[in-house]
Amino acid sequence: MKLKVYADRMSQPSRAVLIFCKVNGIEFEEVKVDISKRQQLTPQYKEINPMGKVPAIVDGRFKLFESHAILRYLVCAFPGVPDHWYPADLFKRAKINSVLDWHHSNLRHGAVTYVVNTVLGPPMGQQANPQAAAEADKLLSASLSKIESFWLKGNSKFLAGGLQPSIADLSLVCEITELEVLDEEDRIRILGPYKKVQQWIESTRSATSPHFDEVHNILFKAKAKFQEQRMFGINAAALPQLCSLASRVNVVAGAAVVVKAASYVDEAWECSSKQTSLPSKTTST
């Protein structure tokens, strides 16, 4: 029975699992769980992952959640996955495990909290928390600094010190690419000081091409939507004056200004993909 991957491409861990499967030629069915519609909290999905989060997999009768556990499982369960992803060498594998364990309480906590409290939260009905964003900003910067100075010290191209990426590289880079939805100046402020981190991101992207960009396409679309919304926000204060001026010249022109401004107000979550929708009923496998 074909592997099923339950995921939302707006989710950083989901993207890591999807890219890994694609890069390594693992045959699977992608089942979209739309977190913007809270499908991860539905009873049918909680039969797969009681924690109500994505991603999760179903492989025959076996169900598994938590992206790092999934990545480790895929390496071991599917023949032909190159050793560099999760080496058989005990010392190298332990080093990768240490990065993955560090990730959740440091880089991920900082990145997710910051992005949610600055960009992603409000469209989902969550009020932004400036204090939480400020604290997350510090943790995010500290985490990037640690990656730059420790795991990428010297001539290290990837986190485990090899010439090819591991599951740790893929997981952490997918985390950092979530910063794409930020205001461009803010994103540059955060990533700009870390030249080795930027090169490492590009190296991981190149090593997983073309699947990296394909899976991240929904994020790039969301980025464009948020940029449009920011443009609308900047010009909102001037809208009454623009409409008034236009109406004095021509009533039709005034209406055109309003319509043009309104066109910027789109839901960021309308980014669509050709993924399989979550069925109304999930059968046991």
From TrEMBL:
It catalyses: RX + glutathione = an S-substituted glutathione + a halide anion + H(+). It comes from the Eukaryota. PROSITE patterns: GST_CTER, GST_NTER. Its EC number is 2.5.1.18. Residues 89-226 form the GST C-terminal domain. Residues 1-82 form the GST N-terminal domain. GO terms for biological process: toxin catabolic process. Gene3D superfamilies: 1.20.1050.10, Glutaredoxin. This is glutathione transferase. It comes from Trema orientale (Charcoal tree).
